[in-house]
Task: structure prediction
Amino acid sequence: MRKGLSPFTLSCLMFGFAFLYVPILLLVVYSFNDGKNVAIWSGFSTRWYATLLENEALKAATWVTLQVAVASSTLAVMIGTLAGVLMARFGHFRGRTVFSAMVYAPLVMPEVIIGLSLLLLFVSLSIDRGFMTVTIAHTTTSAAYVAVVIQSRLSSFDRSIEEAALDLGATPAKTFFVITLPVIAPALVAGWLLAFTLSLDALVLSQFTTGPGSTTLPMQIYSKVRLGVTPEINAISTILIGVVATGVLIASILQHRAVKRREREEREALAT
Result:
């Protein structure tokens, strides 16, 4: 008989969730505060969301952030998928240790080191800092996370399906796009969402690699918070939380449906 959680375990669990989510809940609540003082509740109002529409700096920073996040996430999925496939499928090739170390390095290396290194690289190559350099910086770190996700999924993948397709005359490229890619699609979506979230949060990398006209939203928020938190910051942060939460919810629903569909197909195959 399965036992329930002990009072101590349940208390620790509740404390952990409260520590994580109560500050976020307070931020969302005070984004609807009518007063300018974010520490004193003055009544319910949506005036600060309307004010955001008149703040050109925040709107421009938000647009740049979304563009960088989408571009870097897409590039990270492409590069990370290739790296994950290489590490999961090509065995112990010459230079694997060095290659794996290069892939995993951004996971443990401080962002300030990566940002400074990229800054020196761009300066030495006389590359003007802007949208492109910020996208490259975000892709550099996000691709490592995607590679780990894809490698983990491929490690548990049943290769007999691919071998059957190859035995039936399919080329390796067709096997990958027709068989492998649809199976690892949930991992690709998870990797893209992870890279997208990391890009939204990349403050240090953006500060080192940004240029005129490419200020991201985290940089804009940080510059304003240094002068004091305003309800506008709470409002834009709440919108970001809503966007990320919606994306995670949609991805979870799609992944759940894919699992259910695959289980149903397996049952039908066994029945026949």
